[in-house]
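Long-time lurker, first post. I've been practising inverse folding by hand and with some scripts of my own, and I keep getting stuck on stretches where the structure tokens seem ambiguous. Below is the full token string for one chain I'm working on. Before anyone asks, I'm not after the true native sequence, just a reasonable design that respects the backbone. If someone could post their per-position residues I'd love to compare against what I wrote down in my notebook.
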């Protein structure tokens, strides 16, 4: 009995210290920061993070010398890339004064992930396949670049599918022994046919039935440049142009395209800059 009691006390202490560690880790990267009466940012201040901004709707916003769209309620969105510099400037330009603020970003370490057993042409495509890939890539890039002056993302985000995360955002990929580009999304393994739902309100901007790398895929637009991608699907249950709500049926898990087994490749971007979906779920503000 004494040993059991001691064991429980130690477990409680371990849980307490783990909670403290998690609290400080999350606090280090996710804060609602009020820089001035003209600028508030919410989200993950780390590589792969997403920041939701608020300012006066009449102000102009520049991030890394690029003008950022601000809607009529003062909302805007900033993507922090996988390898973003650890200090960036944001400029708020009003009718009377101009403000410059430093945004400090936490650095992340990424794992190396090795995937073997892929068909040879899915790692080293031939000339004809490269033509197809370039054509499809342009179509996907253009779809991610579609602007929608809505804040559908304010419905909040949920997991699109229940499963096991087998590939994390930012991992350096080694495919069939050959180094390739980092992974810019989450791989979530689940049984073929598992239902995939919309993680947030959106409009469907693209569906593809047979893309070379992604197989059957969907792109959703959540507004102000924020979009999400769902790849390797078995079945698509939505149409281009369709307006959907959080929790609506999107598709079924499959293994189409460059895939070694049934899973969902889920990505979130601001236009063409990929952010970490897991960080968004962890640190999303209450809109």
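-- Answer (accepted) --
I ran through it position by position. Result:
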């Amino acid at each position: 009995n004494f040993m059991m009691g001691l064991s429980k006390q130690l477990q409680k202490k371990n849980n307490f210290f783990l909670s403290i560690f998690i609290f400080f880790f999350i606090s280090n990267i996710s804060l609602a920061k009020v820089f001035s009466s003209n600028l508030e940012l919410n989200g993950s201040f780390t590589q792969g993070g997403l920041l939701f901004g608020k300012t006066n709707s009449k102000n102009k916003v520049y991030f890394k010398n690029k003008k950022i769209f601000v809607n009529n309620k003062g909302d805007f969105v900033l993507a922090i890339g996988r390898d973003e510099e650890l200090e960036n400037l944001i400029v708020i330009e009003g009718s009377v004064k101009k403000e410059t603020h430093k945004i400090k970003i936490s650095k992340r370490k990424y794992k190396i992930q090795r995937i073997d057993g892929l068909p040879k042409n899915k790692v080293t495509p031939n000339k004809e396949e490269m033509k197809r890939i370039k054509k499809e890539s342009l179509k996907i890039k253009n779809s991610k670049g579609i602007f929608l002056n809505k804040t559908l993302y304010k419905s909040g985000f949920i997991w699109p599918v229940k499963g096991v995360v087998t590939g994390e955002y930012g991992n350096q990929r080694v495919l069939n022994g050959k180094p390739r580009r980092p992974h810019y999304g989450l791989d979530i393994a689940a049984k073929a046919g598992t239902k995939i739902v919309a993680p947030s309100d959106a409009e469907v901007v693209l569906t593809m039935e047979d893309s070379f790398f992604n197989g059957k895929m969907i792109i959703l637009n959540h507004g102000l440049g924020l979009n999400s991608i769902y790849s390797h699907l078995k079945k698509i249950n939505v149409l281009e142009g369709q307006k959907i709500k959080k929790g609506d049926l999107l598709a079924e898990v499959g293994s189409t395209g460059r895939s070694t087994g049934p899973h969902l490749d889920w990505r979130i971007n601001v236009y063409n800059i990929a952010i970490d979906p897991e960080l968004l779920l962890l640190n999303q503000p209450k809109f």
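A couple of notes from the structure itself: The domain at 112-283 is CATH 2.70.70.10 (Glucose Permease (Domain IIA)). Residues 87 and 148 are 29 Å apart (CA to CA). Happy to go over any region you disagree with.
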